[in-house]
Amino acid sequence: MELTQPLTDMQTRLAAEIDARRDDLTLLTQELIRIPTLNPPGENYRDICDFLDRRLSKVGFQTELVRAHWAPGDCEAYPRWNIVARREGNRPGECVHFNSHIDVVDVGKGWTTDPFGGELKDGKVYGRGACDMKGGLAASIVAAEAFLAVVPDWQGAIEISGTADEESGGFGGVAYLAEKGYFKRVDHVIIPEPLNVDRICLGHRGVWWAEIETHGEIAHGSMPFLGDCAVRHMGAVLHEMEQTLFPALAQKRTDMPVVPEGAKQSTLNINSLHGGQEEIPRDSTGLPSPCVPDSARMVIDRRFLIEENIDEVQAEITGVLERVKAGREGFSYDIREMHRVLPTMTDKSAPVVTTVSQAIRETLGKDPDYVVSPGTYDQKHIDRIGKLKNCVAYGPGILDLAHKPDEYVGVDDMVASAKVMAFSLLTLLGPPQTP
Fold it and tell me: Mind telling me which NCBIfam families this protein's record contains (predicted)?
């Protein structure tokens, strides 16, 4: 079946313009990687915003640097800076917004390249954040710049944002901008997350984080019968989870096109577990004191499906705890919610979805795959706080490389995704096209 019509003259010129900017796209990605925006703690956010300010101002964008005062993590040592850049067209119309997060996660071990060197090797740019998601940010900038160079008469507005803290919840970035009303003037949002160049990500599963604490009574470790071990109580909680909760979650399946396959069921991760006195420092030569632990804490990370209700998700956990309490002498607990995000999924008939889908067909000659992310990203804030559902994630990069050592993004993928983004701008903002 023929998937595409012949490209219009404007599309042909636009694709050629992006091809001509291939080296610039590569260099821009390298320059962004070389600004180490590690989160935590939130380093060099102002530096990368200033860099983007200089770049986008040169092509006529009006820029605004926005600090997320009092957001989680914001302080004088590590202020949460964001940039929002806007370029108006020749006449009124809709606004297309490209949103990329500027923060990257810890480097970790196992690298064979400089994590902040931006090395180009075999058509790939290496570095922390190359894939997630500075390659996508660079592709969106070059797509917009190429569109402005080729299309003289267009309507509406283009916005490009670089936002803080997506890797730690996005509260100092997109959530803050949404609360301040920045998305009220926006009609379409494309988030260039690395979901593979031929995929459109429609949304994500939900998440509920909680801390469970079991209580005991401290006593001398040589006479544990005089105390009550909170760690043993937590062991009973884990046993009950293994016996009843994990099997029940494995039976829950979704119609959401979640990738990978294992994420199509409900999942629970034991994020951390600690009992008793604080651990002694690694460089200490001392021994811990002999005490029965009177507290044990476990942090859980529950990922749930669009078919599930958040109240039911919480009730499953409290049900585990109450069953243990009913059958275990001296058992008591507290549970504290840490974080919640409801699932979201944009309809495949939404304007931004159909537009990007057609642009993928025109660029790659194939139908896109529609997927849903197993984890959350900043679409949650655009949807829930910004009240804008016309939002997708689409960008270059292989999802499996995110947060890994020797992370990279392919230059071919960045060029292809820049064409998809530019073709989308042409459809949404450009003049009528004829073959």
Answer: DapE-ArgE, PRK13013.1
Cα 251 to Cα 37, 244, 308, 332: the distances in Å are 40, 11, 13, 29
Question: Tokens 């670089």, residue?
Answer: 162
pTM (2 d.p.) = 0.90
Residue with token string 């429609």 = 202
Nearest to 47 by CA among 148, 116, 124, 97: 116
The strand order across the sheet containing 206-215 reads 267-275, 295-304, 206-215, 333-341
- Burial label for 215, CB within 10 Å (0-12, 13-18, 19+), is middle
- Marked catalytic residue, from 74, 103, 145, 383: 103
Does position 4 have pLDDT exceeding 60, yes or no?
no
**Helices (H) then strands (E): counts for the chain:** 11, 16
Q: Name the catalytic one among 17, 132, 145, 166.
A: 166
Burial 21-32 (b: 16+ CB within 10 A, else e): beeebbebbbeb
- Nearest partner of 47 among 74, 79, 85, 73, judged by Cα: 79
Catalytic residue flag (residue 114): no
Walk me through the domains of the chain, giving residue ranges and CATH numbers: 9-204+343-429 (3.40.630.10), 206-341 (3.30.70.360)
- Over residues 295-353, the pLDDT tens digits come to 999 999 999 999 999 999 999 999 999 999 999 999 999 999 998 999 999 999 999 99
Helix (H) or strand (E) holding 413: helix 411-429
d(CA 280, CA 423): 58
Task: Give the whole-angstrom CA distance, residue 431 versus residue 294.
Answer: 70
Instruction: State the angle between helix axes of 135-150 and 9-20 in degrees (0 to 180), rounded to the nearest 10.
Output: 130
Q: Residue 328 has which token pair?
A: 């275990």
Phi, psi of 314 (to 5 degrees): -65, -40
**Angle of helix 135-150 relative to helix 45-57, nearest 10 degrees?**
10
Structure tokens at 238: 């884990």
14-62 pLDDT, tens per residue? 999 999 999 999 999 999 999 999 999 999 999 999 999 999 999 999 9
